[in-house]
Design goal:
The chain has about 80 residues and is mostly helical. About 75% of the residues lie in helices and about 0% in strands. It is rod-shaped and about 95 Å long.
Length: about 80
């Protein structure tokens, strides 16, 4: 009598599922939570960067306006 051919049997039939369903569900939830935290962190950093750039642009505009007014006041008539 010959042993059954192991190579032909699918993996799940030979060994069962890779992880129990509750373990796989927990792993999937944890992976999704990490992904959500990463995306929220990137969004927050991007928002703060854009806010800082806008404020910096306003400060540069103000500085150039003040410099132009000073030049106007200090220039000889």
């Amino acid at each position: 009598m010959s042993p059954p051919r192991v190579k032909d049997a699918p993996r799940v039939e030979r060994f069962g599922p890779a992880l129990p369903s509750s373990t796989f569900t927990g792993f999937a939830v944890a992976a999704l939570a990490v992904l959500a935290i990463a995306l929220l962190s990137i969004a927050l950093i991007s928002y703060r960067t854009l806010k800082t750039r806008a404020a910096t642009g306003e400060m540069v505009t103000h500085t150039l306006t003040v410099a132009a007014k000073l030049e106007e006041v200090l220039s000889p008539p």
